[in-house]
Write a structure and sequence with these properties.
Layout lengths: L1 H10 L7 E7 L2 E4 L7 E2 L5 E2 L4 E4 L4 E6 L2 E5 L3 E8 L3 E15 L7 E5 L4 E4 L3 E7 L5 E8 L1 E6 L2 E6 L4 E4 L5 E4 L7 H14 L6
Length: about 200
Amino acid sequence: LSLLGFSALALADPPSRVARLGYTTGTVSFSPGGESDWVRATINRPLSTGDRLWAEAGGRAEIQVGGAMIRMNAGTGVSVINLDDRIAQLQLTQGVLNVRVRRLGADQVYEIDTPNLAFTIRQPGEYRIEVDPDGGATTIYVRQGRGEVYGEGASYVIDSRQPYRFTGTDLSDYRYVDQRRADEFDRWSGERDRRYDMSPSAR
């Protein structure tokens, strides 16, 4: 039976949706799934379940997966938790992500997990997720679109009307925060989007 199961797995089609490291600036390190060593990340590297990325001070990275661009600011750590034709699930251990989702199929899921919660993107749009260096709090800004946060026994819908900062893991300890002005990382992300939108391949 185990041999038959192995044969079925061997014949199964690989996922048609893959992630790739589309851009880096500064120092960005990569650790493949199942290993503890870190190496310098290289452009166009495919990313799969278990892989990890770390952007050093002054470094930034862009992960391209399906209809989404996921951008890492300096001092940001990301792990690929699950990646297949339907699900792109990343873990943000600390730092800042800007996520732009251009297309979202009815059966597709983009999820960002943090030490405090899981944030699932429900609509195409622009999102910023921040995790404190000690992992104690997560702040979510929905610039455009809608998402849902999940904690221990609770969930909330978040849209562009109000950003939130969560501590703990049950979503009961939260506070409202003001919409933040665009910083240098936001401007860099916006410029990356404009370059992509104007590219011959996008048109």
